[in-house]
Amino acid sequence: MEDQFRTEIADLGEFGLIEHLTKNNETMQASTILSVGDDGAVIDQFGRQTVISTDLLIEGVHFDLMYTPLKHLGYKSVAVNLSDICAMFATPTHITVSIGISNRFSVEALSEFYDGVYAACAKYNVDLIGGDTTTSLKGFVISVTAIGEVAPDKFVTRAGAKENDLICVSGDLGGAYLGLQILEREKKIFMEHKGVQPDLQNQDYLIGRILKPEPRVDIVEWLQEHNITPTSMIDISDGLSSELLHICRKSEVGCILYEEKIPVGEETKTMGMQFNIPTSTCALSGGEDYELLFTIKQEDYEKTIRNSDITVIGYITPLDQGAHLLTPSGNKHKLVAQGWNAF
Amino acid sequence: MEDQFRTEIADLGEFGLIEHLTKNNETMQASTILSVGDDGAVIDQFGRQTVISTDLLIEGVHFDLMYTPLKHLGYKSVAVNLSDICAMFATPTHITVSIGISNRFSVEALSEFYDGVYAACAKYNVDLIGGDTTTSLKGFVISVTAIGEVAPDKFVTRAGAKENDLICVSGDLGGAYLGLQILEREKKIFMEHKGVQPDLQNQDYLIGRILKPEPRVDIVEWLQEHNITPTSMIDISDGLSSELLHICRKSEVGCILYEEKIPVGEETKTMGMQFNIPTSTCALSGGEDYELLFTIKQEDYEKTIRNSDITVIGYITPLDQGAHLLTPSGNKHKLVAQGWNAF
């Protein structure tokens, strides 16, 4: 630890760190079709393809047990991994769940967590096939690996967006961020005035968005049924800006994003006003919505907009034009990633 | 957390807990061939089969950074997962590695860890295809998932041992446990007398056994080449007694284990005397040797013993005869699991 030449991890950031650590990673197996750097990896399995994705969730970093019921936490741990499989345009089939727990947890508490895991498995027709259970000195640690399947070479990466492709997003955005603000506010009030019951009335939608996200398996299935193959795809865990910039960087393209076209729910608008946060900020930088962001060819436009749960929010430009946000008043801002950063 | 009816996790133990949490686990996917409860799970992939295994390693529980070089830790994190794939009689092909790290780690320190990961990948021809990198509030957390392949229905579980089958083990046992004792002793001396350099001379073998275990891919390949299919198999992570009892319980059989036949290396014998610990105790209860424990049909005996790195150490009996250890003096002891328990 006492290196003379010490580089702080914060100096590289999460993506810089991953790039640094994997730059010499050479794959040897002929079956490795796609390795590190996307929502999931792709392995060839005797002519069919398997997608693998994994997430590590740590108490105090990714979740706060003070306002996260364990059943919701179990559900969400599975859901966010299934979302990664969806983002590869694949269908999730199996998961493994490993946990590290301290002795402050009872068996009943853990059962609650697993009730949530099983509920997500049942809803998405996914099998829990393994895991590891161990002790932790401090805090709850959850590691989930999800496996999915996709027809040969039908997986979709972040790297395929082309000039003039349309940028689409599923559902609505910004809700999870405001749900989190509500929970943090109520936690603060509770900490200052013990005994005061949290006021969460009429906020089911926003709180549900943060505590119980749903992977958009339905969107993947709908696109597949309608023979629409996105040219690129990612799920929105860190915020729309950050994810769109991933697509731009990997695809070596620019983009124009219309601020007014970003889909935002009514509850999000109302609560955004209460918190005095522009809803577009919630959508662009909030994260945790777990909607799908993808690009389609222009020729698929008519077919795609038949799904009322998909919104076209912009288009892809050449690389040298950069990535920009167009405001309703016609101003053009450089798109910047202010998403959640694990470091 | 404040359940009126609270069951302590320690009351169930690791295996009881896993059983409790997975007792209602129903699989829905037709492709799920083997689920929770063995060294790995088995998924059917369009006629061929994939084995998945996962481990969660937590600083202070599974490793001590005071005497574990980060490169060794990276290597071992991969090796122990590949060992699980071997224990399913499969060939490892891919891994994912997720890490949670606090800011006390520098980029250089992490690179060391990944050098070890890549060294294990290169040695065993395995591709690193993904992972997750995040921050932890305290301690280093590592989650590895390994994937392997096996010909259809050629995987081997813990459940197939039959009466009169011979019990075999690869390599020699007990070395890792004594290696750990040496490291713990030197750590203690170092803590009491700062500046005293650890005396690890001539202890490369034992220290190597604990810091750099090797998965027995070679044993699996040799058995496959010689058309020997074990009837059951497990890898020795917790100690011979504990692992053999897993086979007995899952296979619903008993066993006789000959204490004098347990393979123990010269270094282990010498150091066992220094520490005044019987070498059979190290082998039976020590764990972390990552050798393979398996059963074969009697008809495969002649073929199997041609491999000098495989030792026959006992045989399988009917369930009602129980699991016993026979000492050189002819005493018969009930076999008990005193392996390492994560709770």
Describe this structure as you would to a colleague.
Two copies of one chain form a homodimer. Chain A starts with 8 loop residues before the first helix and ends in a 9-residue tail after the last strand. In chain A, 34% of the residues lie in helices and 24% in strands. In chain A, strands 1, 2, 3, 4, 5, 6 and 7 form a seven-stranded mixed beta sheet that branches. A seven-stranded mixed beta sheet of chain A has the order 9-11-8-12-10-13-14, with helices on both faces. In chain A, helix 2 packs parallel to helix 3 and helix 4 packs across helix 5. The first copy, chain A, has two domains: 120 residues, PurM-like, N-terminal domain (60s Ribosomal Protein L30, Chain: A, 2-Layer Sandwich), CATH 3.30.1330; 169 residues, Alpha-Beta Complex (Phosphoribosyl-aminoimidazole Synthetase, Chain A, domain 2). Chain A is built from ten helices and 14 strands. Chain A is of the alpha+beta class.
Instruction: Summarize the helix and strand pattern of chain A as letters.
Output: HEEEHEHEEEEHHHEHEHHEHEEE
Helix content of chain A: 25-40%
Give the overall silhouette of chain A.
globular
Could you please say which CATH topology of the largest domain in chain A applies here? Phosphoribosyl-aminoimidazole Synthetase, Chain A, domain 2
CATH superfamily of the largest domain in chain A: PurM-like C-terminal domain
Chart the SSEs and their pairings.
Two copies of one chain form a homodimer.
Chain A: H1 9-22, E1 32-34, E2 41-45, E3 48-58, H2 70-86, E4 91-101, H3 107-123, E5 127-130, E6 133-135, E7 141-150, E8 166-170, H4 175-192, H5 204-211, H6 217-225, E9 232-235, H7 240-251, E10 254-258, H8 266-275, H9 279-286, E11 292-296, H10 301-304, E12 310-317, E13 323-326, E14 332-334
Parallel strand pairs in A: 4-5, 4-6, 10-13
Antiparallel strand pairs in A: 1-2, 2-3, 3-7, 4-7, 8-11, 8-12, 9-11, 10-12, 13-14
Helix pairs in contact in A: 2-3, 4-5
